[in-house]
Write the structure tokens for this entry.
Amino acid sequence: MVENKKIPKKVQEMYTQLLDVRGREGLYKWAIGQGILRADAVLCPDVEMLDLADSFFALSRSSGDKKLFIIGQILRKSAHKIFRSLEKVNPERPLSTRFLKSVSS
């Protein structure tokens, strides 16, 4: 398992505020957009988002805050969507073992 990074308080507050203002679906769409935009600067924005989701899950377990768990769920879902979107654009891009790849028969 990947080591969870500590999330700065400012980032926690930003995601919590986004959840409060935009709701679950709004945060999901925003996260997908951010991941696609980061694809130009980072090799695997999907893995980066998955790491962030894991960090939110760990933080929610230690603090007991259900909002942090919801944010983790949304980020995990968006990471998988980003993975599938980027895979369609470039099927030859490096794969991560953290995502399932469908195999056609």
